[in-house]
Amino acid sequence: MADPVIFAPDKGAYIRTNAWLAAVAMAGAMIVLWLIGNPYPWTGAPAGLAAVGIRAWYMASEELVATWQMTDTTLTGPGPRKVVLNQIEAVKIMGSFVQIVTKGGDKHLIKYQADPAATKAAIERAIG
Asked: Which of 117, 126, 116, 114 is nearest to 76 (CA)?
C-alpha cells in the first residue's frame, strides 16, 4: 500500500479567496446602498470588508486545519467525511476549491488548495 496523499489547505489561497470575497462584498454592499437611495453608499465598502475580514479571522483556525487524505481506496476528510474512490463521478475546480461529486450525488469540497489543478489531477489519476 502506498503512502497516503495529503491535501492540506494553503494559507495563501485562504487569504486570496477571502480577499476576492471581501471585494465582492464591498462592491455589493455599495450597490445595494446606492439602489435604495442611501446618501452614503461608500459605507458599504468598510462594512463588506469588516464582515468578510472578521469571518475570515474567526474561521481561519478551523479552515486551515481541514486536511484531506487519499489512500489507494478512499478519500477521507474532516468531519469525518469518507468517499470511496470508485464512487467519485466528477472532480471540478471552483476557484481554490476542488469539488468531489459522488455517483450518489454527494458533494464535498477540498478547500483552499494552493494548486487546485494538481489536486484534481491527483484524484483523477487515483480513480483511473
From this structure: 126
Edge-first strand listing for the sheet containing 107-110: 88-94, 97-102, 107-110
* Contact yes or no for 82/75 (Cβ under 8 A): yes
Query: Is the distance from CB of 45 to CB of 37 less than 8 angstroms?
Result: no
For residue 101, the one-letter residue type is: V
How does DSSP assign 103-115, residue by residue?
TTS-EEEE-S-SS
pLDDT in tens, 50-84: 999 999 999 999 999 999 999 999 999 998 899 99
From residue 50, alpha-carbon distances to 19, 39, 53, 64, 73 in Å are 11, 20, 5, 20, 43
What letter does residue 8 receive in the DSSP assignment?
-
Give the total residue count for the chain. 128
**Predicted TM-score of the model (pTM):** 0.89
